[in-house]
Amino acid sequence: MIAVAWAMPGQSESRTQPQPDAASPSPKPYGLGQAPFAQISSASCAAAACHGGGQLGAKGSEHSTWAATVFPEGPADSHARAYRILFNAESVRMGKLLGIAAPHKEALCLNCHSVAGVEPTAAATEGTGCGACHGPAEKWNAAHVQPGWHALTNRDKWERYGFVPTKNLTARVLSCAGCHVGDASREVNHDLIAAGHPRLAFEYTRSHFSPEYRHHWKEQTPQPDFEVRAWAVGQAATLRAATELLRVRAERAIPTQSDQPWPEFAGLSCFACHQRIGNDELNRGNATTPRPPGIAGWEVWSNAAVGVAANLCSEAFPSVSTPNLADVARLRELMNKRNPDPKAVAELASRAVAELDTWLADLQVAEDRGLNTRIPNDLTRKLAHALAANSLNPDRAKLADHDWDALATNYLGLGAMYHAAGGTRAVPGWTEPIRELSRELKFPTGQKGERFHSPAGFGKIERDRVRDRFRELFDATVDHRGKP
Amino acid sequence: MTRFSQRVQLLAALILLTTTVIVSVRGGTSANQTNPKSQPEPNNKNPLIPKGPDDLISYSPACVDCHGRTPDDVKNSRFTKDYRSDEFVLLTESRTWEESDPHSRSFKVLKEPLARRMAEILKYDVTKSAKCLTCHGIDKYAGLPLPEGDFDLAKRFETVGTIDVDPPGVTCNVCHGLRKSWQSEHYNPVKGTIPWRTLAPDKKKEAGMRNLRHPVVKAQLCVSCHVGNAAEGKVVTHEMYAAGHPPLPPFELTSYMEGEPKHWAYPTDPRLKFFASVPAADRWKLFHFNDAKDESYLSRNFAVGAVVALRAEAELLLADAKTAENGGEGLDFARFDCYACHHDLKYPSDRQKRGYDGPPGRPTLRAAPGLIAGIVAKHGEGVETTDLAKTATGFHDKWIALREAVALRKAATGFHDKWLALRKAATARPFGHPTKVKEAAMAVIDWCDNFLAILGNSPSSLYTIEQAKRLRELLAEAATSASIADPEAAMLLAWGYTTLAREAGVQLPADRLKTLADTVPLSVRAEPYTVEQKPAPIQFGTRMKMLSGYQADPFRQAFEGLLK
After folding, report:
1. B243 touches chain A (CB under 8 A)
2. What is the pTM for the complete model shown?
């Protein structure tokens, strides 16, 4: 039973996924999906001589740093608390609404909130333990302390041992996306969200640099290179995971009598629908939104800024060329329908995934070859400029897309570039508009203490202000000759 | 208990046992049947549809001659003098329509800023598209050639080119009948025939005049635009709403009747002396009303309107489900409860408090049409057979009233399950499970048809003074016992209750009405209309703020206050 549970996603990646062109299969990055080996308890990593050294943040103390109990003060790793929150009042209420008696026993929840299929099963209480991100340790647990381990290529470590080489950003972010975007066996759909699960809105650098997150490792790549590359890889990997999830959902919906949700609202822009209606001014009034009225955009969150990453990735990853994302663009077009034909979507999504895999494989290879060359000096500025331009229409009179997700995605990219560049000391001119954007896009707090999970009251006036901030950033990010 | 009422109850019991036999007899005895069945008459056989270009009524100026009088004019009109027409109609109809009825502006609004912005977003000319004109300017091409043979109105706009003259909007003919044939006949009867006004409704229909005194005919006409009718190309889609189309207010016939600047009057209106002179036996047969002391005119209209509106909603669902079965896009978002999706996300969550028809996270159908029709059904199921017999005189009429009561009770049963099945089918997956929706919608339509067959045809007083009181009590109970989460449902309850209470002479203190009006608008249009006053522009923003700011608890409390 457990074996089946963990083998399924592996199958969907490697066997059942239709190949658009069998003669020349597109290259695939390693680290996709879940390796078909057994998971073991994180307790076996926690020996004092291995990763349980007991010194916060030190090498050899990875497990001690990760665990919630060893150093209870300060920021923590929320993965270690993933299991325990299944007992809180919100989880219990969610369970009630969904007809789930005990969320902490439900595979649907445990697949992400613990290590799926971990042995012994009691180890599930550890939360999202080591194996969830680093791969099931059945094979590599013994091997990774052997002398020959370091000589293995990353691809070998993954393919032969099921080890996720998280030092490679592509493998790492794809691994994150398994839960934080979802895949065939780990899925937060709209039924779950309606019952109270927070929506998934993944952007790697935001999570990485969150002040609330306690790292149990030290990054080797210096700034700004690390953050610029992580942002670009994050764009590609997030959209890849979202597109694959769309393909899976479309496949399930193909049979005419299928009861599977289609279209899956969790893959559409939340606040396209979840807004109060009836303002005199239409929200799209000051935007050139590329969707018909009344249609919630498909994965605007993962699509809005990916073009910027694609156009400029060759500068951050030498020898990588601009990817071909023609089928991704066609898929976006096809998804601009209320209820698109699932068969057509499944076919096109499959081709779009292949395009994204080719891109990700290129990025991955470039990283593994060793990125000794630093990124160009003003790449953060150039990317920031491109993101500001991306959020506006060509003459900058209007927003390119009025959807909150599009604005937030562009803002997060700009925030990453600002942070990578060194913040207010390095680029003081960006500070004010970026802080303003953050304030405008923030969810409000209710007068009676209600927590908002949506940008309540974010209307045309607020969007006008956001547009002006993007314009300011556009102007602030030209180079010394006034060029992009 | 009197001997008579014992006999009546015995008879009622007997009838209940033999319902099937009796119901089969019904058809033969009831005159003036209206057929609300789902199969519409084919256009080439429907006498209301013009037979060709030469059969179209000329545009409304022809009507103004007689029906556009000032009140002073009326007295001096030759129709008043020669025919006492003022005792049958008001003769000021065209003026009322022109000066204060929003229907007269239905095309003009397509040229206003809101419509222009919609056109920009929708990327089509709203003053020319059949999608808009089917409701907003149905008379646009009157007088121009019509396509040959079988045609429908929607098609008419596609095949005929455009003209430069602005159409006058929803004119006399749109509602009363587009065909030319009745135009002269109705004021210039052929010598030696029955005068027009006492002609049987069927005969008037044959001549092309729609029988708007009939509650079912009237309600069906109203809902064709105010709810929608896919076969006639009258559908407000979510795309239109997203582009800025104001929301259609929920439909409730009597509040719409009360809210429309009246160019007509109820048959019970003392100004129309003619109706009082109609022999009791002919009142229903010719004009579809009973004496005010026997039956609440508005209660019957309320019940008919509720069921016709639900039927129209079910037809729209059916049409969408059929296209979905053939690979179409499924149920339009406009078929769903706006507020199931359109709300801010916050915790604690009002949406979660409302509960779900199926899994959480699926759009649910609009609650309002089912809620009101459900109350009418509940009322019908509980009709006291003996109460209905009280108003009838003579054994034969009492027997008919009993028979009608039994039939009403029978037709009313089963509503709840059918409506629930439709709601579940609509949430089986997003946009509904096409086959399940189709089957469930057809079952709801059948229920409506059976119920309307009685409401539309029974000459008996079904909504006696006591029964009308019960109906109001059920409305009040629905408004106060449960939390009404849907603002449209709350509006219908408030509208229906206050309209029916006013007819019955129930005191509604102004201050308590004001408290209720702070929670929902109390009329279809918030703005007052008078004959002297031109229609105010729609207070779109204000109206929308009331909708989106609606809160269930204050509504319930205000309604409770009204009942004290």
Report:
1. yes
2. 0.87
pLDDT, one tens digit per residue, over B25-77 is: 333 333 344 444 445 555 567 788 777 666 766 555 678 888 999 988 898 88
Bridge-based pairing state of the strands A39-40 and A118-119 = parallel
pLDDT reading at A320 higher than 80: yes
Question: Which residue carries 């952007």 as its tokens?
Answer: A203
Q: Of B343, B429, B430, which has the smallest distance from its Cβ to A274's Cβ?
A: B343
CA-angle at A294, arms to A291 and A295, nearest 5°: 50
Q: How far apart are CA A167 and CA A187, in angstroms?
A: 26
Whose structure tokens read 């994180």?
Answer: A42
Q: DSSP characters for B308-360?
A: HHHHHHHHHHHHHHHHHHTT---S-GGGB-HHHHSS--EES-HHHHH--SSST
Which residues in chain B have their CB less than 8 angstroms from residue A191's CB? 359-362
Phi, psi of A258 (to 5 degrees): -60, 140
Among the listed residues B291, B241, B272, the one whose alpha carbon sits nearest the alpha carbon of residue B87: B272
B117 touches chain A (CB under 8 A): yes
pLDDT at B16: 45
Instruction: For residue B510, give the amino acid letter.
Output: A
At B252, which amino acid appears?
E
Instruction: Give ipTM to 2 decimals.
Output: 0.85
Decide: B170 and B103 in contact? Cβ < 8 Å: yes
Angle at B251 between CA B247 and CA B256, to 5 degrees: 105
Beta carbons of A278 and B547 less than 8 Å apart: yes
Residue B416, pLDDT score? 96
Task: Specify which residues B209 forms β-bridges with.
Answer: none
Chain B environment of A446 (Cβ under 8 Å): 346
Say yes or no for a CB contact (<8 Å) between B345 and A294.
no
- The whole-angstrom separation of Cα A252 and Cα A257 is 11
Q: What is the DSSP string of A264-332?
A: -GGGB-HHHHSS----SS-GGGGB--SS-TT-PPBTHHHHTTHHHHHHHHHHHSTTPPPP--HHHHHHH
Give the minimum alpha-carbon distance from B327 to chain A in angstroms, rounded to a whole number. 8
Confidence check: pLDDT of A215 > 60: yes
Any CB–CB contact under 8 A between B239 and chain A? yes
10 Å CB burial of residue A9 (0-12, 13-18, 19+) is buried
Binned at pLDDT 50, 70 and 90, residue B537 comes out as very low
What pLDDT does B128 receive? 80
With the CA atoms of A52, A57, A60 and A64 taken in that order, what torsion angle do they form, in degrees rounded to the nearest 10? 10
How many CB atoms neighbour CB B20 within 10 A? 9
Neighbour-count burial for B48-86, b at 16+ CB within 10 Å, e otherwise: bbbbeeeebbebbeebeebbbbeeeebeebebbeeeebb
Compare CB distances from B430 to A196, A265, A457 and report the shortest one's residue: A265
Contact residues, chain B, for A277 at CB < 8 Å = 338, 342, 544, 547-548
Neighbours of B117 (CB within 10 A): 16
pLDDT tens, residue by residue, B497-520: 999 999 999 999 999 999 999 999
The partner residues of A392 in beta bridges, in order of sequence, read A399
Residue B115 CA to residue B135 CA, distance in Å, equals 14
Mutate to test the interface with A, among B346, B350, B439 (most CBs of A within 10 A): B346
The answer, for B433 touching chain A at a CB cutoff of 8 Å, is yes
